[in-house]
Design goal:
By secondary structure, the protein is an alpha/beta fold. It contains twelve helices and 16 strands.
């Protein structure tokens, strides 16, 4: 017998606020993108910051986790709860701070080796070295909720959030857990991240315009989204509210280019078809697609091609990145949260600021009230990571 997996709690933190605030502002066509210069050595540019300065990765993890737990009406501790909390950048800001401090001391005439040894001893003595490990977010979450269950930390570039949902879904379906908290956290606004993406020519100079003919690149953003997944049996036993059901997923890899999708779309199409098959859905039963929609030339063109090939009926499509910015590994988890809000409220979020598009898609320009049963959320990451999740109304 197949175990049904439902979502009973959602936590979101973005440049537009928490879940309800973010959702309402997206529907209203607002954006959290502003011109910022968080680092003096890097020019002012559009970014989506949560606060006035770059967010702390661990504090952001705890905040979004707490919001999801409250929303799911759970009481701590949760000793048997599984955790799948991913991130593409992790706590990179801390590593960069350490590197800058080492360089500063070297320039001031300190012995590099002596200072490195002192720093190493200090880090070990204070247990701060844990802050630099890839699974920092998952471990912080496990400590926060008092869980001794599995704590997994996937990293699959911008596909990380959906990878996390897929892994949590499988933990429940295979009987390893009855409840798994999943999602992704990103605090990527650091000098190295900005410099790297800028060098690639991926960053926008004025704003984010997914699927728009004037699109110029993505806007880097902070953000996090956490979903509480439970078996339907557990959720019903405790009388939990249910946002929707996780129906299935598709995960593939292009094994092709490091920073561009495989142009024929073979692997991307395979991920979508895999998801539909596992979810027992045909393309004509999909009411909405939350696109990855980064506003880069290559992504939007590639994604539009995939949708046009598989969904000839003209399914509704939108991307929320013009409102939240691109939260990298957290973007798929944010997209899934917005899909669940669409199902709950029976309203589609718009491509904020979309003026003119050259793509033959039914792009949602303004919030649209329609009947929504089944939706797909897409994520496509550097390295050719393709991730798709299907969500539906729980009956």
């Amino acid at each position: 017998m197949t175990v049904e997996v439902v979502v009973t709690g959602i936590g979101v933190v973005s440049a537009l606020g928490t879940l309800e605030s973010t959702w309402q502002q997206i529907l209203a066509g607002d954006s959290g993108i502003r011109l910022h210069q968080p680092f003096g050595e890097i020019e002012r540019r559009p970014l989506a910051l949560i606060g006035k300065k770059p967010a702390d990765f661990i504090l952001l993890t705890r905040q979004v986790l707490a919001d999801a737990i409250v929303d799911a009406d759970l009481i701590l501790p949760l000793p048997d709860c599984g955790l799948v909390i991913g991130s593409s950048r992790g706590n990179q800001a801390k590593l960069e701070e350490l590197a800058r401090e080492g360089n500063r001391k070297k320039e001031e005439g300190f012995s590099y080796l002596e200072e490195k040894e002192k720093e190493r001893e200090l880090l070990i003595n204070n247990y701060q070295f844990i802050d630099f490990m890839p699974h920092t977010g998952a471990i912080a979450a496990a400590n926060f909720i008092g869980s001794g269950g599995p704590a997994i930390a996937p990293a699959a570039a911008c596909a990380t959030g959906i990878w996390a949902i897929a892994q949590g879904f499988e933990l429940i379906q295979t009987g390893q857990c009855d409840r798994v908290i999943v999602g992704a956290v990103e605090a990527p606004i650091t000098p190295l991240t900005l410099a790297g993406f800028n060098q690639m020519g991926a960053l926008a100079k004025t704003g984010a315009y997914p699927f728009d003919s004037r699109r110029e690149g993505f806007v880097l953003a902070e953000g996090a989204a956490i979903l509480v997944l439970e078996s339907a049996e557990l959720a019903k036993c405790r009388g939990a509210k249910i946002y929707g059901q996780v129906l299935g997923f598709g995960l593939t890899n292009d094994a092709c280019y490091a920073t561009a999708p495989e142009l024929g779309g073979k692997s991307g199409l395979a991920a979508i078809k895999q998801c539909l098959e596992r979810s027992n859905l045909s393309p004509d039963r999909i009411d909405y697609i939350h696109a990855h929609g980064t506003a880069t030339q290559l992504n939007d063109e590639h994604e539009a091609m995939l949708i046009e090939k598989l969904f000839p009926q003209g399914v509704a499509v939108s991307s929320t990145k013009a409102a939240t910015g691109h939260t990298l590994g957290a973007s798929g988890a944010l997209g899934a949260a917005f899909c669940l809000m669409s199902i709950k409220h029976q309203i589609l979020p718009p491509c904020v600021g979309l003026r003119e598009s050259n793509f033959n898609l039914d792009l949602v320009k303004l919030a649209r009230r329609v009947k929504i049963r089944n939706v797909l959320c897409f994520s496509f990451g550097f390295g050719g990571q393709n991730a798709v999740v299907a969500l539906g109304r729980y009956r």
